[in-house]
Each structure stands twice: as C-alpha cells, then as structure tokens.
Design brief:
Structural class: alpha/beta
Strand content: 25-35%
Strand order of the largest sheet: 3-2-4-1-5
Largest sheet: 5 strands, parallel
Order of helices and strands: EHHEHEHEHE
Number of helices: 5
Distance between the termini: 42 Å
C-alpha cells in the first residue's frame, strides 16, 4: 500500500446495468491490479455472478454488505484490516444514497475513479 491511503474504484448504477460484467472484465486485465490484492465490496446481488477462477487469479477477496446500516466507517475499516488490500472496488447499490456513501467511507479511502452504469434499454426517461 502506498502511504496511508487506499484507492477506491466506485462502480454504481442500476440493477442489470453491467456493473458486475465490467468489474470481471477489469479484473481479467492484468494491467489493473498488477498482481496486487483487491478487496471487492458488493452492496447488491445482480443477475451475473462472479466467476471464482477470475477472482482467484486477480487476487480479489469478496465481502458482501447487504444492509445499508452495515455500510459504516467501523465495519469498512474492519474489512480493510481483515484483507489488507492495495485497492478497493466498491459495487455500490444503485438504490442507496451516494451522499451517505461518501460520508461513511473511511477517510483514508481516495476515490480514484467513479463509474455509473445504466442499461439504456431498461432506463425510462
């Protein structure tokens, strides 16, 4: 880990928008993690499941947060202590408040990139 900060890649969007597929594609790209450990925090279960072989090859550990109450600085810091990741990918629940997420994220997390996914065929204007 560089200094005391942990880079966070926030993946947000609507159900069936392509978040999980995107994350799996990124994890299979050897340039992303460069052999370092990734903590993947999942705040919802989508239609697509993560392939265990992809997670293992990418050195990605998975933790589920099913209740918005569990998304708090203490619990998130415990997950970091448990897994000691170099980076975090957060598949955030599209129905939860982004403002709350930003307020409750541990202060040593740095938002490196934020992605928003919407399947235009399912999104009504």
């Amino acid at each position: 880990m560089f200094s005391n900060t942990i880079p966070l890649y926030l993946i947000n969007g609507f159900l069936e928008g392509g978040k999980t597929s995107f994350i799996q594609d990124v994890l299979t790209n050897g340039d992303f993690a460069d052999g370092q450990k990734t903590l993947l925090i999942l705040c919802e279960e989508g239609e697509v499941e993560y392939a265990p072989d992809i997670l293992k090859a990418a050195k990605a550990e998975v933790e589920f947060i099913k209740d918005e109450e569990e998304f708090n600085p203490e619990h998130l810091s415990e997950l970091v202590k448990k897994h000691r990741p170099t980076q975090i990918m957060l598949e955030y629940n599209g129905m939860w408040s982004l403002r709350t997420m930003a307020q409750k994220a541990p202060k040593d997390w740095i938002f490196y990139q934020i992605f928003m996914f919407v399947d235009h065929s399912k999104y009504q204007v």
